[in-house]
Amino acid sequence: MKIIPTHIPDVLILEPQVFGDARGFFMETWNAKTFADAGLNLNFVQDNHSRSRQGTLRGMHYQIKHPQGKLVRVTSGKVFDVAVDLRQSSPTFGQWAGAELSDEDHRMLWVPPGFAHGFYVMSESADFLYKCTDLYAPEYDRSLHWNDPSIGIEWPLVNGAAPTISAKDEAGKNWQEADKFA
Ligand SMILES: Cc1cn([C@H]2C[C@H](O)[C@@H](COP(=O)(O)OP(=O)(O)O[C@H]3O[C@@H](C)C(=O)[C@@H](O)[C@H]3O)O2)c(=O)[nH]c1=O
User: Fold this and answer.
1) What is the CATH number of the domain that holds 155?
2) Hey, which of 49, 79, 84, 173 would disulfide with 119, CB 3.0 to 4.6 Å?
3) CB count, 10 Å around CB of 165?
4) 61 ligand 1 Cβ < 6 A
5) pLDDT tens for residues 134-167?
6) Does any domain span residue 16?
7) Would you tell me how many other CB atoms lie within 10 Å of the CB of residue 63?
8) Domain ranges, residue 111
9) Is 107 in the pocket of ligand 1 (CB under 6 A)?
10) How many domains does the chain fold into?
11) Cβ–Cβ < 8 Å for 57, 112
């Protein structure tokens, strides 16, 4: 597995080794020892799968208690995936890191606990799979507004069109009002 740091050192792009042959390909997407050897001792307790149409933006989500670390990947299509550092004690507090993830590059992103996370679907549709280090806790679920100017995420919006978002995310909090981590 190749590990590519982003400019936020805790947010990592992971490229699994892909074994191609006449049948197709094989790759390991999660191996506790490989990740531990890379410094990521993770205990996953929930797996999620969402499918979204082109132009959908889900985010920026976090749980203020029971924060989840997320190992995310795309099995069909292409997304732009983003993590925002909400840890006030962090030197990269308030910064965002993004990466394209697709079914062709097989890249994964490690989003640590303490980050808001979201993605935008660039392809016709996308299947998005992720492992989480804590369980869904809806009472602590929070949404930071995807387009807050003080964060300034550079979303690659298709034809510049406004994204499709949920009512919850439409009402996402701005940076000043959003709950943050210590
Ligand atoms: C996240 C989640 C949702 N749900 C339910 C609640 C709701 O009825 C329905 C859809 O929920 P949402 O609109 O919150 O789904 P979605 O917008 O896809 O939420 C996800 O977005 C990405 C960006 C993340 O990072 C995830 O952690 C998660 O917050 O699914 C669960 O049952 N378990 C879960 O873990």
Assistant:
1) 2.60.120.10
2) 79
3) 21
4) yes
5) 999 999 999 999 999 999 999 999 999 999 999 9
6) yes
7) 19
8) 2-170
9) no
10) 1
11) no
Task: Specify whether the CB–CB gap between 116 and 166 falls below 8 A.
Answer: no
Binding site membership of 135 for ligand 1 (Cβ less than 6 Å): no
**Residue appearing with tokens 């749980």:** 63
For ligand 1, the distance from its centroid to the CA atom of residue 179, given in whole angstroms, is 18
Provide the annotated active-site residues.
61, 130
At 128, the amino acid letter reads F
Q: What ipTM was estimated for this complex?
A: 0.98
Closest ligand 1 atom, residue 117 Cα: 25
**Confidence class for position 6, pLDDT limits 50, 70, 90:** very high
How far is it, in rounded angstroms, from Cα 71 to Cα 80? 15
Contact call for residues 161 and 54 (beta carbons, < 8 A)? no
Q: Where are the alpha helices (DSSP H) in the chain?
A: 32-37, 167-170
**This prediction's pTM:** 0.98
Q: Nearest residue CA, atom 8 of ligand 1? A: 138
Give the residue whose CA is nearest to atom 34 of ligand 1.
136
Q: Which residues contact 138 (CB under 8 A, 6 or more apart)?
A: none
Cα Rg of the chain (Å, integer): 16
